[in-house]
Amino acid sequence: MITTAIASVLIIKLSQLIVDEIFVTKRNSILIIVLLMIVVFVIKGLAQYYQSYLTKSIGQNILRDFHIQMYKHLIFADLEFLQKFSSGKIVSSFTNDIMLMCNSISSCISTARYFFSVVFLTGYMFIFLDPFLSLIAVTVFLIAIYITQKLGYLIHEYTYSNQEIFSNYISKLDETFRGIKVVKSYLAEDYEILMAKEKIQEISKSFSKIAKISALISPAMELLNGIAIGCIIWYGGSLGIRGQITPGELIGFISAFAAAYRPLVSLLSLNANFQEGLSAAKRIFKILDTKPKIINKNDDVVVNSKTSNKIDFVNVSLSLNDRSILHNINFSLLDGETVALVGKSGSGKTSIANLMMRFYDPSTGSIKLNNQELNDIPIQLLREKITLVTQETMLFNASIVENIAYSCTNATIEQVIDAAKKSLAHEFIMNMPHGYNTTIGPQGSELSGGQKQRISIARALLKNSPILILDEATTALDQNTESAIYESIKKYRKDKINIIITYRIHTINFDKIITLKNGSIV
């Protein structure tokens, strides 16, 4: 950057010498000056190449690091925190906000070279040329800075608002296509198009406001440039007439001013880009600065390694967002028990599963595993001991074997097949085009609801953890298949704790039935 700035000053000085050599002293040493100028241009070009490569590399490294940091932060974030953000808003932060911020940083680094050019050229004007002419230049520079600062503040405000609008649009888009069956079933395509059009128009209006303000910068700078050049020619010309400066010095000053003004305008125009990046950074750090509530108290804690397992809920209550969900829950579970949690929707069954997984901590009371408080057990070790299968099946756009082995990546194909047989999935898998190597599409779109649930249960059985929770994980299955799967679980997991959250308790003989009503055990 400094090399480029020095080269710019040398080019102007050499231009001044050429003019004076031709029109004033009329000496014949112009060839040497021209050769020197060519050398300076070569050096400047090489410096600019290295500078451009370096700044782009830095920008890409920043982009990479922020993507990794954001992903790590969100993947370990609390469930309560993640549920406040739609997947669309998270995608918007990854795609739009990070990209906008990193582009702004790259532009700042890239344009920073102009700072040295402005400093060196302004210093050259003051030291080697006329001080009064230099004051004219500096005054124009200060006015330009003031104008862009005021416009930049407006850009910052509008950009932050625009990013919020864009984030809401992405959320709506995600929501619409996740529920596309509902949209089509209710012939709501035209309604969704209308809603999308309104949001797109809102984004367009917001972008137009930013564009109008940004567009003011260029004509304002051109007007100032014209006024400054006019003043310099008028005053400098009068000095030349009186013989106080040479033609080369006047040309040199005008060249120096123009050479300094162009990078200054680039620096000031960068303010608009910087304000956009600042708005994006605010949204990003709003996420990154949120600390998880569910944390390990002590990673060095010694975990009770009993061969048998026991779960105790002792006077457990839970409130979320000022809403009471569970009240004074007490029960114990032992190895070898298959237990049913039953109750109407909203009675608190899933909340008990969430507490056992430590997605939340109880508001009062305690939950113990082998007489050890759950929040004293490192989260990773706790979740190795407990497996949860929910009603909302989550499958990946990968093969069946990869989906089942997600819970145990070093499992053999024989172990995967064994888990599939236990969940009654093996037969339909073998009827698929490529068997276990069949790719099942995004979120398992190639499978029926019942097939998805059997794959999810197979994944849980492969993990073979001491505690298994099925949270209405068989709702898409017929009664006979559901009963067969539960019997299989009782048979192959007879020495472990199995918790079945269901509303069809007649399908299996349970060791215990815990009934919930309005957040309490009845």
UniProtKB/TrEMBL annotation:
It is a multi-pass membrane protein. Keywords: ATP-binding, Membrane, Nucleotide-binding, Transmembrane, Transmembrane helix, Transport. Residues 1-276 form the ABC transmembrane type-1 domain. Its EC number is 7.6.2.2. GO terms for cellular component: cytoplasm; plasma membrane. InterPro entries: AAA+_ATPase, ABC1_TM_dom, ABC1_TM_sf, ABC_transporter-like_ATP-bd, ABC_transporter-like_CS, P-loop_NTPase, Type_1_exporter. CDD domains: ABC_6TM_MsbA_like. GO terms for molecular function: ABC-type oligopeptide transporter activity; ABC-type xenobiotic transporter activity; ATP binding; ATP hydrolysis activity. It is found in: Cell membrane. It catalyses: ATP + H2O + xenobioticSide 1 = ADP + phosphate + xenobioticSide 2. The chain crosses the membrane at residues 27-47, 122-147, 213-235. The keyword Membrane applies. Part of an ABC transporter complex. Transmembrane domains (TMD) form a pore in the inner membrane and the ATP-binding domain (NBD) is responsible for energy generation. Belongs to the ABC transporter superfamily. Drug exporter-2 (TC 3.A.1.117) family. This is Multidrug resistance-like ATP-binding protein MdlB. It comes from Orientia tsutsugamushi (Rickettsia tsutsugamushi).
